[in-house]
């Protein structure tokens, strides 16, 4: 596991394929980082599937309403829901969408991000300044690379748990 410099702004996601450690970027996107920590601390992300996984592009998850395989799961609707919290305003920056960065998923409305996010498999610079970047994988990208592909995958992988490192 990578060295954790700031446990309060580090997320640990447990997948079947291993642990993924994400360093959040609160100086770049404070509202998105706070939302992820709030939902992680409530357990909202535990059991949520990766509903949209495109080889060479990204793995998307975080639909806490329809994507939780342990509660009210509806695979065909996964990706259409969010949390009960209000949507977030865009926090675009010059941070590029490089391999391993965390981006906020949203609808066409730039201010519609809520709970869903994606991890880039590749450098996806065409997304720069259009989707909020608010973290980067500092270890465990090999586990991300193993996530089952599909839109949605027939048997999707899920986040077994998501924790803030300060609480782990």
CATH architecture: Beta Barrel
For the record, the CATH class is Mainly Beta
What are the secondary-structure elements, in order, as H or E?
EEHEEEEEHE
Strand content: 15-25%
Cα gyration radius (Å): 14 Å
CATH superfamily: Cyclophilin-like
Q: Which structural class matches the secondary elements?
A: alpha+beta
Overall geometric form: globular
Oligomer: single chain
The name of the CATH topology is Cyclophilin
Number of helices: 2
Number of domains: 1
Function: PPIases accelerate the folding of proteins. It catalyzes the cis-trans isomerization of proline imidic peptide bonds in oligopeptides.
Keywords: Isomerase, Rotamase
Family: Belongs to the cyclophilin-type PPIase family.
Pfam family, one: Pro_isomerase
Structure overview:
About 10% of the residues lie in helices and about 25% in strands. It has about 170 residues and is α+β, with helices and mostly antiparallel strands. The chain has a single domain (about 10-165), classed as Cyclophilin-like (Cyclophilin), CATH 2.40.100.10. It has an eight-stranded antiparallel beta sheet with strand order 3-4-6-5-7-2-1-8. A hairpin with a 3-residue loop joins β3 (about 50-55) and β4 (about 60). It starts with 9 loop residues before the first strand and ends with a strand.
Question: Helix and strand layout, with pairings?
Answer:
Elements: E1 10-15, E2 18-24, H1 30-42, E3 52-54, E4 58-61, E5 101-104, E6 117-120, E7 133-139, H2 141-145, E8 161-164
Antiparallel strand pairs: 1-2, 1-8, 2-7, 3-4, 4-6, 5-6, 5-7
């Amino acid at each position: 596991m990578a060295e954790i410099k700031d446990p309060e702004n580090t997320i640990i996601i447990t997948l079947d394929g291993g642990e993924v450690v994400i360093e959040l970027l609160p100086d770049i996107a404070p509202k998105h980082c706070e939302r992820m920590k709030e939902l992680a601390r409530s357990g909202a992300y535990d059991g949520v599937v990766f509903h949209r996984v495109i080889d060479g592009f990204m793995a998307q998850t975080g639909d806490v309403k329809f994507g939780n395989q342990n509660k009210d799961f509806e695979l065909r609707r996964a990706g259409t829901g969010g949390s009960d919290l209000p949507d977030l305003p865009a926090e675009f920056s010059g941070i590029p969408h490089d391999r391993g960065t965390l981006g906020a998923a949203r609808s066409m409305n730039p201010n519609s991000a809520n709970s869903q996010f994606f991890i880039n498999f590749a450098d996806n610079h065409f997304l720069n300044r259009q989707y909020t970047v608010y973290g980067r994988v500092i270890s465990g990208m090999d586990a991300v690379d193993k996530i089952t592909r599909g839109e949605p995958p027939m048997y999707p992988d899920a986040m077994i748990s998501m924790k803030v490192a300060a609480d782990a």
